[in-house]
Write a structure and sequence with these properties.
339 residues; alpha+beta; three-stranded mixed β-sheet
Length: 339
């Protein structure tokens, strides 16, 4: 069994090593178990005119599935569109079909990646006379900076499988290529750019992106541009990121119970002062809940018994006021990850 496992890891590593060269051709790796469900996240704002959205997806390495954050990238040339890669079940294995650039968006397994990739085709924008026009109904674009925009509501294909990350097999999306999508498969395709390949390699090098570390909820679900980790957007349900650890999860491998206990002890010993906790809303908007206000009840609970013991007469003469409630978080919009 150990020998078989070593051979398997070697084959996977070899496949990953040649992935950039072979990815535009289609299949390059297969796995015996399904990838996790697609996480829900908001889209970072488009960094500039001419950038196209590449949705995030689960890739596979010797250590298991890891998340490749969604990102805005520039196509290799004007007029090309990105067809995302996808996992498909075949002959008892989950096989990855790599993404590519081409004049049309081909079949990507019926996977609803969101942001215009509804499961068939792409509705996030189109090329018009040498420039790309953005559909702001599904893409996060600053219209005061980018003026080539339009609004078109989008219907989601395979809505019942809105978070499913693979095609075919038990629980997979039952989509098949249309005749038009099948014809697009014979067009000239261009592999991912060097920038895209570097983005995938960076995702693999971060242990926090692996499903076994983040439980399927990556803290870096999307970034604005390749390498711009300071613009990271977390998935819904993700553990907070520790900026000092270079984007590693704040729990550092500790269990949820251990993490909660340590947070309680740390709060009791050193109340937070001034930092604000945020919750992601639509298009990256946030609702703030000051950490100082949240820590106040605990500080009062500790300080009050000592004051009562030292000066009971003060309490009798002037009852203490009830502790102030922490301000409620105000939502500024819904998730925009999957439409």
């Amino acid at each position: 069994m150990k020998f078989t496992g070593l051979i398997r890891k070697f084959l996977v590593a070899a496949a990953l090593a040649i992935a950039p060269a072979a990815s535009f051709a289609g299949v390059f790796i297969s796995v015996g178990f399904a990838p996790p469900a697609l996480p829900v996240y908001t889209q970072p704002i488009c960094p500039g005119d001419g950038y196209l959205w590449n949705p995030g997806y689960w890739a596979y390495g010797p250590e298991g599935y890891y998340w490749v954050p969604g990102v805005w990238t520039q196509p290799p040339t004007v007029g090309l569109l990105w067809t995302p890669g996808y996992w498909g079940f075949s002959n008892g294995l989950y096989v990855f079909n790599a993404g590519y650039w081409g004049p049309h968006v081909g079949f990507y397994g019926g996977i609803n990646y969101g942001f215009g990739y509804t499961g068939s085709g792409f509705y996030g924008g189109r090329w018009e006379g040498g420039h790309f026009a953005y559909n702001t109904a599904v893409l996060n674009v600053n219209r005061t900076v980018i003026h080539n925009t339009y609004v078109e509501n989008v219907h989601v294909t395979n809505a019942a499988y809105s978070h499913t990350s693979f095609n075919g097999g038990t629980g997979g999306v039952p989509a098949r290529p249309t005749s038009q999508e099948a014809s697009y498969a014979h067009e000239n395709h261009i592999p991912p750019t060097a920038e895209q390949q570097s983005h995938v390699q960076a995702a693999h090098s971060n242990p926090a992106n692996f499903a076994k570390a983040n439980g399927g909820h990556p803290a870096m679900a999307a970034i604005q541009k390749p390498g711009a980790t300071n613009t990271a957007v977390p998935a819904r349900g993700a553990a907070p990121m520790n900026a000092r650890a270079g984007g590693q999860p704040a729990n550092n491998g500790r269990s949820t119970g251990q993490q909660a206990s340590q947070r309680q002890n740390a709060t009791a010993q050193r109340p937070a002062t001034g930092a604000a906790q945020t919750r992601t809303g639509g298009f990256g908007q946030t609702a703030e809940r000051p950490a100082q206000a949240q820590a106040r009840p605990q500080a009062q609970q500790q300080a009050r018994p000592q004051a009562q013991a030292a000066r009971p007469q003060v309490q009798a003469a002037r009852p203490q006021a009830a502790p102030k409630a922490a301000p409620k978080a105000e939502s500024h919009g819904g998730e925009h990850g999957h439409r």
